[in-house]
Design brief:
Layout (H helix, E strand, L loop, with lengths): L10 E7 L5 H4 E7 L8 E8 L3 H8 L10 E2 L4 E8 L7
Antiparallel strand pairs: 1-2, 1-4, 3-5
């Protein structure tokens, strides 16, 4: 479906942290509204993702000088295209 023609907002579940701390305490699964699509951007659906041990380091605040919450947890995953802006056939 062309997302630019859809009348309702796109919602997504995201594992977020809004402050640094122990992952079991600060990670929250939240429903978030995605921004509108713009020209030459394709939306992808996350099919699978994981939280690796190295992903836990920024959550605890070890890189607090480089990142500022709120942030999504994890950096890798498997995706599939689910929407595009306009009628272009490729990006």
């Amino acid at each position: 479906m062309d997302a630019s023609q859809q009348g309702t907002a796109w919602l997504s579940r995201a594992l977020l942290y809004r402050q640094f701390g122990p992952p079991g305490r600060v990670l929250q699964l939240e429903l978030t509204e995605l921004p509108p699509l713009v020209h030459n951007v394709m939306r992808v659906r996350m099919l699978a993702s994981g939280i690796n041990p190295s992903d836990l380091i920024p959550i605890t605040g070890a890189y607090g000088h480089r990142i500022t919450p709120p942030m999504m947890a994890g950096y890798e995953g498997v995706t599939a295209p689910c929407a595009k802006y306009g009628a272009q056939r490729s990006l």
